[in-house]
Amino acid sequence: MKTYQELLETLRREPKTWLVTGVAGFIGSNLLETLLKANQRVIGLDNFSTGKKENIAEAIEQLNERQRARFTLVAGDIKDLSTCRRACEKVDYVLHQAALGSVPRSIENPVNSNDTNVSGFLNLLVAARDQRVRRVVYASSSAVYGDSPALPKVEANTGRPLSPYAVTKAVNELYADVFWKLYGLEVIGLRYFNVFGPRQDPQSAYAAVIPRWISAMIRNAPAVLHGDGSTSRDFCFVANVVQANLLAATTTNSKAVGQVFNVALGDRTTLRELFELIRCALLPTHSHLRRYAPRHEPFRAGDVRHSQADISRIKAQLDYAPTHTVEQGMVETLAWHARKASSGSAASPELMERP
Length: 355
Prior knowledge:
By secondary structure, the chain is of the alpha/beta class. It has a domain at 4-196 and 235-266 and 308-326: NAD(P)-binding Rossmann-like Domain (Rossmann fold, 3-Layer(aba) Sandwich), CATH 3.40.50.720. The protein is built from 13 helices and 13 strands. The chain has helices at 4-13, 26-37, 53-60, 65-68, 81-87, 103-108, 110-130, 164-183, 209-219, 238-250, 271-282, 312-318, 326-343; strands at residues 17-21, 41-46, 71-75, 93-96, 135-141, 187-192, 194-196, 224-226, 232-233, 235-237, 260-263, 269-270, 295-297. Helix 2 links the parallel strand 1 and strand 2. The longest helix has 21 residues, at 110-130. It is globular and about 60 Å long. The chain starts with a helix and ends in a 12-residue tail after the last helix.
């Protein structure tokens, strides 16, 4: 197995073609940036229902013209099988990030979540199989652990799902397993825990807690904390997730194929600790935060109280080695928010679309 840095060096010498679904999203655009910097050819698929062209613009704005020219956008929806087939043409690896995220969103509209997360994923598997893609790496979620109280979370021991979103991700894992065993399509699933970092949207009604709190604190608006603050999560900086995707796509360890891996730090941070970490980091430039406190609201339906990953399996089989702690990731995340506040949105790029 190669270390991550060795892998990046190899990719620069031996470029491949990658499909990134949900390329205009938070994680998808970070994958795009890393792949293009490594001189890879990237097809990006997005319907822009939640993703933003400005994320793509930001991902490519510091790249040279040759690197930018290696990116092609397919504007379309994974719910359309013909679009998936077109996007998968002559692709080596698929990194599947497209989904309707958020537990609350799925509770509000389970049909939409199922249509995108289950039917859309099935379309992608069929297209990847038919186009003879080498491997599909797909985003699963720690939500599949559901009501299992055991900590840390071990891949083999899941509980009953607590939300429609969790159900969709559990079904993804079942479909991927069937396509591996029945059709020989190489698949690897990544159970993301609480990912954060640059380009995570703070404005969405379903925004994750970290960008939502950062935005609220900067604006001196109320920061809502659901519960008493003792709820804990395994927060994972997006660069660690990018690493896991590239390692999973290219691993030569045959034992890893067909498996699902936790992607996290293997640690826990309570919401109370997270709140203070963000507040103290912003305090030197935002004096109004000296007496700032969260506004407590009831626990949300479908949320688990505690989450922490066992990452021994992904370390052993994929040589995963997280590069950022929560504190280190927060430094980069806050720097991004500061740049956004001072410069505004990036201009939309001129993108080459695949006909």
